[in-house]
Write a structure and sequence with these properties.
- This protein has 332 residues and is of the alpha/beta class.
- Helices cover 42% and strands 15% of the residues.
- It is built from 15 helices and 11 strands.
- Strands 1-9-8-6-5-4-3-2 form an 8-stranded parallel beta sheet.
- Strand 2 (41-46), helix 3 and strand 3 (68-73) form a beta-alpha-beta unit.
- Helix 6 (121-130) packs parallel to helix 7 and helix 8 packs across helix 15.
- The chain is globular, with a radius of gyration of 20 Å.
- It binds flavin mononucleotide.
Length: 332
């Protein structure tokens, strides 16, 4: 049994696993490796630096002949940027964080599939209204920016709301059990970030990689402080999950004080440029408990798909034998 879903059918790919378009970390080599593994690789264009995109798309083009895509942050992109991105010939363009209505039209009018990542039901409704082909329901367990809903109840709520549009689950999925859970919730696949950040093809600092492998989910937190310090005008409703660090410890609960302290912001930027791990934002999700080594991305895709299949099969087999506690009839 292969895990065929409405999403794998739409994109004609082998496994319902997508590389999250992690700004800066998901370049052409990582996206190509995920696509070669049978998933869908998305380059993380972030706020839309086309010099970077040019370079990474060129790398991707020599790395794979399978479907691939590019992801942008909606609040910082434009319709013009979408037209420019479409000229690369991606199979998918993904938009996250912000209202897609003003930038999506050229994508909707093209052959390229539109994926929209959403963090609440209002965003899910809007994504459906603009004509998204796939909607990604992101829970707050996710690494990087996002909202406040938890993956477990949010994914089925979005799936019910936008049916029959295929939904992918995102946030806290790092192995086959997570993918099996996503499918059980009514998702047609999973979009995975943090697990792929710890892959040999990712663009990631060795110190960051070491921290992801060594730390656990309880070492992460959501905050808007790092964006205030970096001076990046993210809409305030999207906070980011990162590893805790000394900078967050110092400014936690005092965002207004940080906003008005120009010297502290300058000090932060100098420390960040110097790669100081006491201040550097290590974007990472709660699923880092499950990440214990840096692996080739193709292996991650294949083992996640195989383990999800084995997990679903085991639950059914144990249920049939009456061995699984969840499938026994309740005692009266
Ligand atoms: C390092 C990192 C960078 C990210 N950058 C982006 C981004 O630029 N654009 C985007 O749409 N999502 C970004 N995300 C969020 C992902 O799209 C996705 O929702 C998230 O990684 C899923 O949760 P997980 O990290 O638990 O797998 C980023 C996530 C991480 C971990």
């Amino acid at each position: 049994m292969a895990l065929r879903t409405a999403f794998t059918e739409l994109l004609q790919i082998e496994h319902p696993i997508v590389l999250a378009p992690m700004g800066g970390a998901a370049g052409g080599a990582l996206a190509a490796a995920v696509s070669n593994g049978g998933g869908l690789g998305l380059i993380g264009a972030g706020r839309g630096d086309f010099e970077w995109i040019d370079r990474e798309v060129a790398l991707l083009a020599v790395g794979t002949d399978r479907p691939w895509g590019i992801g942008f942050q909606t609040w910082s992109t434009t319709e013009e940027a979408m037209k420019r991105a479409l000229a690369y010939g991606p199979d998918v363009i993904m938009l996250s964080f912000g209202d897609p209505a003003s930038v999506a039209p050229p994508v909707v009018a093209s052959q390229c599939a539109l994926m929209v990542q959403v963090v609440d039901l209002d965003e899910a409704r809007r994504a459906a209204d603009v004509g998204a082909d796939v909607i990604v329901a992101q829970g707050s367990e996710a690494g990087g920016h996002g909202g406040t809903r938890a993956t477990l109840p949010f994914v089925p709520a979005v799936a019910d709301l936008v049916s029959p549009i295929p939904v992918l689950a995102a946030g806290g999925i790092a192995d086959g059990r997570g993918l099996a859970a996503a499918l059980s919730l009514g998702a047609a696949g999973a979009l995975v970030g943090t697990r792929f950040q710890a892959c040999i093809e990712a663009i990631v600092d060795p110190e960051v990689l070491k921290a992801i492998v060594e730390k656990g989910g309880e070492d992460t937190e959501r905050s808007g402080l790092l964006d205030i310090a970096r001076g990046v005008p993210w809409p305030a409703r999207y906070t980011a999950r990162t590893l805790r660090n000394e900078f967050l410890d110092h400014w936690r609960d005092r965002p207004d004080a940080l906003r008005s302290d120009v010297a502290a912001q300058e000090e932060y930027r100098l420390a960040e440029d110097a790669g100081d791990m006491r201040v550097l934002p290590v974007w990472a999700g709660e699923a880092i408990d499950l990440i214990t080594e840096c692996l080739p991305a193709e292996d991650v895709v294949r083992s996640m798909a195989a383990d999800a299949e084995a997990t679903l099969r085991r639950i059914l087999d144990e249920g049939r034998r009456g061995g699984h506690p969840l499938t026994r009839p309740p005692r009266r």
